[in-house]
């Protein structure tokens, strides 16, 4: 009788182990299927109707935003695409199309002309700071040295952050080579 009981226990353990392995295999297959079919939950921030994900670089993320087409065109005209696709890290304060529309009529068109490439580059690099600064790193009164050599000033009131008077509307858009903060105004360097 002991022998029969022991055989039942061993058989039960074998069945339980087999079911457990089968359940794990099934769960693994479902997870793999979800990943390959795009069903996995993606982390990121929605900007301009597109999901900005940490696995893409700053430029690749910006290309998806319908709110940043003017900025993308300007970055291309200034030949800064390769730079901003580089390893960085960079902190970019990215003006929206609406921000560019606030500039005096004809300003964007003038800056995009080949003969004004140096001015355009100066404007764009005034929006870029070396390093990866998230919103939590930005302190009231902080001075940020930009890639063009000039300085931006941070104003912070509670959760509201401003850069040279431009409001940060979406903070901490994390990319593989830095972070982007969407701003509502184009900040201009002393040209």
Automatic annotation (TrEMBL):
InterPro entries: Adhesion/Biosynth-related, FAS1_dom_sf, FAS1_domain. It holds the Pfam family Fasciclin. The keyword Signal applies. It comes from the Bacteria. The keyword Signal applies. Gene3D superfamilies: FAS1 domain (2.30.180.10). Residues 55-187 form the FAS1 domain. Keywords: Signal. Residues 1-23 form the signal peptide. GO terms for cellular component: extracellular space. This is FAS1 domain-containing protein. It comes from Rufibacter radiotolerans.
